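Annotated sample (chain length 152).
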Amino acid sequence: MKIDKAAIRDLAKILDETSLTEIEVAEGDNMIRVARGGGGISYMPSVAGPVFPVGDPGTPMSPTMELTHSTAAQHPGAVISPMVGTAYLAPEPGKPPFVSKGATVKAGDTLVIIEAMKVMNPIKAERGGILKQILIEDARPVEFGDVMMIIE
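Output written by the structure step:
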């Protein structure tokens, strides 16, 4: 395993310059996470896909109900942010968004771009379906684990 010490230093510098306590970036099969306050620094292979928190199995969700951020994480079609950064819903300012509410998406379609450390990271649909909700705003920060969209 090759450890990118320069990337770790850059991430640690970002923590020092901001009020963040943790930052994580992923590229390919590698992920770097730097945390302040006992979390330490870790470097590990990334998981195959997003991890979805398990909700109360006794609480069914209606397919037509609007989800709040707290209930959206329990949805099986939740699109979770894999990193901290700025989310862009369109490829560039003034262009149409990648997707819009009610659109049909296919697995592999680009849904959003997250800019992290001046790198544009396309976030692609893990599954196909109808885009039911967009829970983020264009050009606004997202945190690791934030629910960005719901696909049913």
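Annotation: Residues 38-65 have pLDDT under 50 and may be disordered.
Annotation: The first helix runs from residue 5 to 17.
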